[in-house]
Amino acid sequence: MSKLYERLTAYGNSNVYPLHMPGHKRKGEKFSFGNPFAIDITEIDGFDNLHHPTGILKEAMEAAAAIYGAEKSYFLVNGSSCGILAAISACVSFGGKLLVARNCHKSVYHGIILRRITPVYLCPDMVSGWGMSSGISPEMVEAALLKNPDVEAVLITSPTYEGVISDVKGICEISHKYGVPVIVDAAHGAHFSFWDICESAVFCGADLVVESLHKTLPSLTQTAVLHKNSIWVDEMRLEWYLQVYQTSSPSYVLMASMDSCIDYAVSKQGKEDMGSYVRELQNFRKEAGALSHIGLLSGSEAGGFSYDISKLVIQAVGWGGKELYEKLRQDYQIQPEMYTENYVVLMTSMADNSVVFHHLFDVFVDINNKCSGNCGKLKEKNDDFQPFPEPQVVLIPASAIEKKKTPFPLEQCEGRISGEFAYLYPPGIPILVSGERVTVQVIETLKRYEKKGFEVLGPKNFKAGELLTIEEEVEDFG
Ligand SMILES: Cc1ncc(COP(=O)(O)O)c(C=O)c1O
To answer: Is domain 4-20+271-380 classified as CATH 3.40.50.300?
Structure first.
């Protein structure tokens, strides 16, 4: 059995090409700033303190804020996850209400639990034929705000894992009309400020925006930024919670990576690299989009307000997502980011050059030829596919977590209250949340995933066919 560091080194030295995070694509020769041991320090003189910045870190974060157009930007060393927890805690009081898109990452649910929040869900439409969430519209937000005047914040994910962008500007205009701040989980959109394909959530007027630098830009894993631009959010409260959710030993290697990534993105070289990446990407999408047996998700199909073209979300006639994923790995030495039942996500970034795109096109042509003998059409079998059933909340998740739970065979859980979350990771979007009623649709979805070989995470004993459930005594939901 090899050791982790040995396996990582072997992967790094292999000819497998990463179409997955992080956005630096392991190109140390281009994005590294030297030996990490040589710059790995603690808060010694001259190097400031992330939790009380007055010197070089304050300057670095001020420079980042100026570049992003934010009032204030904060370096995050615990990924977007800690920024999301801090943003929720800063905006919603303990026991308060949050208007939240159902297709949010699990860190949002963790924030909801920690603050004993009552979630009011915004359920996005599905993208026809793909089985993924589309965007959230300003109209949906307004209708929910009118019904729930005690909501303290709105939280949406834009872009989604698959690149669907919501009308953030419209949502902010509506929410601000009702005096409600907007938090945008833009973990997948850190590159938006550095190209002119689509606008960043900061530019669109969101109050708090969380972006993972590591996902789509050349920065080390765990690096992210939180931007504040708001008259509604209390800065002291936000900064308090950032201290709570971030380590007291922030890595200088990670902070140096953020500083250098942002510097690079605005440098002449960075702008040139971004320009040629966008050109290659656009050409690639045009040519690959014409292939008959490969479906490449486009902005018009995705149905949101706009689309992040850096994500290559693909299907192949006759193959499910898992099969396509395995073929890319085994036959072409391409490591995708993830697969679902229906599609594969390939993540590109400004670290991918023309050689990568030309090779990828050859791979697509080869797959297209192999699939040309397959029966069926793209997307036909997925039109009624609903991976995220409408939630029926009985208990708030925080109450459900604390209740006594009893295991039940999944088949017999219809009508019971779930004591567990259930989700696939990635993308980490729940199919079922603790405290929700288990419906036939939920059971069918979970069983279908299991049958198709997906690992359902959350339930402790899912492999034994069990779900922990809660006895019904509905006194604490309201
Ligand atoms: C939509 C979304 N939000 C937030 C996160 C959390 O980001 P991080 O891994 O930087 O903590 C993820 C992680 O995959 C995500 O997909």
So the answer is: no
